[in-house]
Specification:
Distance between the termini: 89 Å
Number of strands: 9
Bound molecules: phenylalanine
Largest sheet: 7 strands, mixed
CATH superfamily of the largest domain: Bira Bifunctional Protein, Domain 2
CATH architecture of the largest domain: 2-Layer Sandwich
Strand order of the largest sheet: 1-4-5-9-8-7-6
Shape: elongated
Structural class: alpha+beta
CATH class of the largest domain: Alpha Beta
Length: 340
């Protein structure tokens, strides 16, 4: 029995030493120390031995078991260390390799312009409202004092839905009406949004473009308030040294009406191709809210006055950044967009 033990020990030590990886080592452990392992079987068979033999064999067997368990534990640790080392060596990252370039995301220039316009008015106490792109004749025209025979209603200017009274809004002004239907004065809102005109696309026209509408209603709002707000806005947007002028104009929903021109940002007022030699660029329409618009939303025109304006976002972006073709904004050409 003792000889068997010695033989088991000899073989086991040898196998443990020889084991080159964890799996092989585990097999050795199972063969010797597992439930049906050689040593386990001897330990189990002790009960059947005469008392003297049982004691000495038992002692020896236990000593051997402890020794083998320790050896296996040590060897396991060694093998693990070795395999981690091998992995590290194989996976070594060469930190001196050059990286690959990737471009940073950014907002579209129109979105940037829209945000800049909005933040100026928000800082002046305006809140931001939105309205539907699909409108009815009432909101887009009638409530805005645009009579049925007005040329703006022509199919050539407006996209109508087939077999339907609805249309794609031609300006953001209908949202003035929505806002006034829902709120009572005093109010100060801006309305950024997309608008649609049935016209051919060229360097300065697009069938889809963006506006920011403005509306302020209260008792005693005057034209000088409008002038002050828009002057401040233009100076913040283009810089305090840019000249502007208010030129009489006509809109059905404002009276009096004006258009704001700024000094040409390209030639600084000297006259060039872009400003058609005038030195001035038309930038926005504005005026005092027409009493008929107040009547349409049940505001008392004797009590309230207000001003409204409509800013063309594309125009502002073009003159701020010196972009000479509106179509560039819609082509999603990265070479263009990455400059902003
Ligand atoms: N809605 C007008 C347009 O699209 C602009 C405007 C808005 C003019 C508000 C006056 C007041 O041309």
């Amino acid at each position: 029995m003792l000889e068997t033990l010695i033989e088991i020990g000899r073989q086991a030590r040898h196998s443990i030493e020889e084991a080159g990886d964890i799996e092989t080592l585990e097999k050795v452990r199972v063969t010797v120390l597992g439930r049906k392992g050689h040593l386990t079987e001897i330990l189990r068979g002790l009960a059947g031995l005469p008392i003297e033999q049982r004691k000495s064999t038992g002692e020896q067997a236990n000593v051997l078991r402890e020794e083998l368990e320790r050896m296996i534990a040590d060897k396991t640790a060694t093998l693990k260390r070795k395999s981690i080392g091998e992995k590290l060596a194989a996976d070594r990252i060469d930190t001196t390799l050059p990286g690959f370039p990737f471009s940073r995301g950014r907002f579209h220039p129109l979105r940037q312009t829209l945000e800049e316009i909005s933040s100026i008015f928000v800082s002046l106490g305006f809140s931001v409202a939105e309205g539907p792109e699909l409108e009815t004749d009432w909101y887009n025209f009638e409530a805005l004092n645009i009579p049925p025979d007005h040329p703006a209603r022509d199919n050539q200017d407006t996209f109508y839905l087939a077999g339907d009274k609805r249309l794609l809004r031609t300006h953001t002004s209908p949202v003035q009406v929505h806002v006034m239907e829902k709120q009572n004065p005093p109010l100060k809102v801006i309305v950024p949004g997309r608008v649609f005109r049935n016209e051919a696309t060229d360097a300065t026209h697009s069938a889809i473009f963006h506006q920011v509408e403005g509306l302020a209603v209260d008792e005693r709002i005057t034209f000088s308030y409008l002038k002050g707000i828009l002057t401040l806005f233009v100076h913040r947007f283009f810089g305090a040294n840019v000249d502007l002028r208010f030129r009489p104009s006509h809109f059905q929903f404002t009276e009096p009406s004006a258009e704001v021109d700024i000094q040409c940002t390209i030639c600084k007022g000297a006259g060039c191709r872009i400003c058609k030699g005038t030195g001035w660029l038309e930038m926005l329409g504005c005026g005092m809210v027409h009493p008929n618009v107040f009547k349409a939303v049940n505001y008392d025109p004797e009590k309230y006055t207000g001003f409204a304006f409509g800013i063309g976002v594309e125009r502002f972006a073009m003159f701020k950044y010196g972009v000479d073709d509106i179509r560039l904004f819609y082509e999603n050409n990265l070479k263009f967009l990455e400059q902003f």
